[in-house]
Amino acid sequence: MKQKAQIMDATAISRAMARITHEIIERNRGVGDICLLGVKRRGIPLAAMLAENIRKFEGVEVPLGHLDITLHRDDLTDEEKREIEAECHIPCDIRTKTVIIVDDVMYTGRTTRAALEAVFAYGRPRAVQLAVLVDRGHRELPIRPDYVGKNVPTSHSEQVSVMLETVDGDTGVYICDATDEEQE
């Protein structure tokens, strides 16, 4: 995968996550009834960033968990799913919470659909919201994020690559040339 351009550095990511945090606080009139769930892999550290920002801005520790959406993907057969051990961590009873699903890149909407199924496997939350660092368009499902760090128009022949220090050893968002096999 060849990087074409860097569209966000660590400072821009931090700024976008701070803005998303403030939007979450304002929209929900505080944070007393929210639960953050990061989508495995890079959604997990992004959700942790939001939780840390909420702690700094509001002085409140919010429930923080993660979702492994593998068993809910629509591109795997039942046989393939039986061989997978997916692990979710839901830190509280979500039935009285507004669950905020956190992911790195929004593309077709299929990952978000799978995340919604994973959440509802644990109960029916009061509401579900979606926060993404990058929205690149090209929806195949009628799903849109509530909170967006950056909208980045892309072509289908490009990929948006989010790199985070805790996962990749570097932090930044890049547009890359991608082959069909590399696409989400």
Detailed description of the structure:
Helix 2 links the parallel strand 2 and strand 3. The C terminus is likely disordered. 29% of the residues lie in helices and 29% in strands. The longest helix is centred in the first third of the chain and has 18 residues. The protein contains five helices and eight strands; from the N terminus they run E-H-E-H-E-H-E-H-E-E-E-H-E. Strands 3-2-4-5-6 form a five-stranded parallel β-sheet. Strands 1-8-7 form a three-stranded antiparallel β-sheet. It is α/β, with parallel strands linked by helices and 184 residues long. It has a single domain, classed as Rossmann fold, CATH 3.40.50.2020.
List the helices and strands and how they pair.
Layout (H helix, E strand, L loop, with lengths): L1 E8 H18 L6 E6 L3 H16 L5 E4 L10 H5 L15 E9 L3 H11 L6 E9 L11 E5 L6 E6 L1 H4 L3 E6 L7
Parallel strand pairs: 2-3, 2-4, 4-5, 5-6
Antiparallel strand pairs: 1-8, 7-8
Helix pairs in contact: 1-2
